[in-house]
């Protein structure tokens, strides 16, 4: 018996392609909303080798769905003018947090948005 037979393999690491795709999933939310994270999550949700990509696409999807709710509330409240400020704040948060999440994902780090309703678990 050789020494490598009892050796357990290291846990799978994220591939550079998964990190890049996770970066694009987070950044796509700035222009395309929840569409790209939803597609990436649906394609990869049953693939255990894509755990990092699956997690980050779910995280981006939850954040974009939360923002969609905020935008709807802001639009309704635009009748009393506060909605414009709500939508502006949500837009700025979307840009800043999506960039932060994308940069973390590019490094292979799991990112959690500070405010996101976890609808997809």
Please report the distance between the alpha carbons of the first and last residues. 44 Å
Order of helices and strands: HHHH
Strand content: under 5%
Overall number of strands: 0
Main sheet specs? none
Identify the quaternary structure here. single chain
Structural class category: mainly alpha
> Any idea what the shape is?
elongated
Q: What is the helix fraction of residues, given as a range? A: 55-70%
What does this structure look like?
With 121 residues, the chain is an all-alpha fold. The model is unreliable at 1-12 (pLDDT under 50). Helix 1 packs antiparallel against helix 2 (35-44) and helix 1 packs antiparallel against helix 4 (82-106). Helix content is 65%, strand content 0%. It has helices spanning 16-32, 35-44, 51-77, 82-106.
Break the fold down into its secondary structure elements and pairings:
Elements (H helix, E strand, L loop, with lengths): L15 H17 L2 H10 L6 H27 L4 H25 L15
Helix pairs in contact: 1-2, 1-3, 1-4, 2-3, 3-4
In short:
The chain is mainly alpha-helical.
Any descriptors?
121 residues, mainly alpha, 4 helices, elongated
